[in-house]
Automatic annotation (TrEMBL), chain A:
High-level lineage: Bacteria, Bacillati, Actinomycetota, Actinomycetes, Kitasatosporales
Bias kind Basic residues: ranges: 80-94
Any Pfam family hit: Zn_ribbon_TFIIB
Record domain Transcription factor zinc-finger: where: 2-40
Protein name: Zf-TFIIB domain-containing protein
Disordered as annotated region, ranges: 42-101
Composition bias, Pro residues: 49-67
Highest taxon in the source lineage: Bacteria
InterPro entries (UniProt xref): TF_Znf (IPR027392)
Amino acid sequence: MQCPKCHARMHTYNRNGVEIEQCSGCRGIFLDYGELEALTRLESQWSQPGPPHQGAPQAYPPAPPAAPAWGAPHGGHGGHGGHGHHGHGRHKSFGHMLFSS
Amino acid sequence: MPGPFTAHQGDLLPADVLPALTAKARGAAHPRSAVCACTTQDTVLTDRADGTVVRHGDTVAKAHAPGTDPVELSQRLAVAAHPHLSGILLPPLGLTPVDLHGRLVTCWPYGTPVDPEAPENAPWEEAATLLARLHSTPPSTLAAGLPPMRGPAKAARAIARLQAAGPHPAAAPVLRAWSSLPAWARAEGPMPGAGALCHGDLHLGQLVRHPAPEGSWLLIDVDDLGLGDPAWDLARPAAWYACGLLPPDEWNRFLTAYQQAGGPAVPVDGDPWATLDVPARALTVQTAALAIVKSVAADRPLDEVQQAVVEACGRMLAMPEQLMPGDAK
C-alpha cells in the first residue's frame, strides 16, 4: 500500500505478532483497526513479571542511507532518499541497466 | 547478453570478424591442436558496440571496440596480469592483443557471470571489496605511464551519441545537467588528485567467478581501467540508488563493505556524497543519454526506469550544490 502522507511504498512488519505497515519514505506507521489495542495489550503483558517469550521483538529498519539532494523524492523529506521505484519489485528495465555500460 | 550470432552482426561486427574471433577462442582453448575435436558449442556472450565476446569451452575471445588504442590496451592487459592484481582482476591468456581484420582481440579464461535473471543475488559485498583492493593498489608498483581511467570519456561519448540521435523531449534536461558538471567529469580537463587505479566501468556484468562455476569473484573488462578518481567506480550503484532504483539495503551493503575494506574513495565515517556526487551525476547523465538514444532508435517511449533517470537529471539543475541530508524538509 501507499503511505497516505507521503505516498511512498509501505512495508509490512511483524511486531510481537501484530502486523503493522511502515512507510519506506517518512517512516510513519499505519495501524489497522484493532492493532493499536493489540499492541497495548501486548505491552501490558510485557511489563508484567515473566513476560511471554516469543523471540526478540523485531526492530524497525533504520532510516535509509544518505542520498544526494537531486535524488528521487523521498516523501516529506525533501529529496534525499531513494524510494522512487524499487518498492514495486525489480523492474525488468532496471535489471538490464544493472548489466549495462 | 547472450544471443545468436546473427542478432546484431550487421550493425556491430564486420561479417569476417566473428568467424575469426571464434577460431581465435578455439585456438586459445586448444593451443596444441590444429583441429578442435571437443564438442563444445561456440557461444556469443556479448555483441555490442563496445566489444564482442565469444566463448569456446573454458576460453573466451574478445574483439575490442573499433578504435581501441593498442598501446593502452597492452598496458591495461599488463595490469590485469600483474601479480599485485591477482585475486582482484581476471588475468588474460597472453599479454599482446592480436589484430583480426582491424579489430584488436584478446583471450581470457571463462568465468561464471552474475545471473542476469537473478540480480537480487548480486555479490555487492564482493564487488565493493574487490574495488577497495583495486583502488588501494599503489600505481607506483605497476608499470609507469598508465593511461587515465576512461569513465569521463565514456560519459562524453554517450552525450555525443545523444546529440547525434536527433530531437527528443527528454534530451534538454540531460544536456543541461551535463553542462553543469565540472570539466574533469566531462573529459574536458584533468581529473583532480593523484589518481588511484580504477576499473572505469563497473556494473554487474563486470564480475565473474573464476574458476567457473564456484571460484572467487573477480573483476573483468579492463578496457576503461586506468588512473583517476576512485569514486567513479562506486558511482554507478550510487546513481542507481539516488534515482530510486537500487534498494537502500543493497546500496548500504555495497557502500559499507567498501568502507570496511578500507577503500579510499569515500570517508570511513561522514558523508560519502561529498566525493560521490559529481561522478554519480555524470553516470546518471550518461545512463539517461543512452536510454534516450535507444528510445529514439527503437521509436519507443522511455520506460518507467529510464524516466526516473531523466527526472534525476532535471532535479540536478535545481540543486547545483550538494545539500547535506537534513537540510531540506
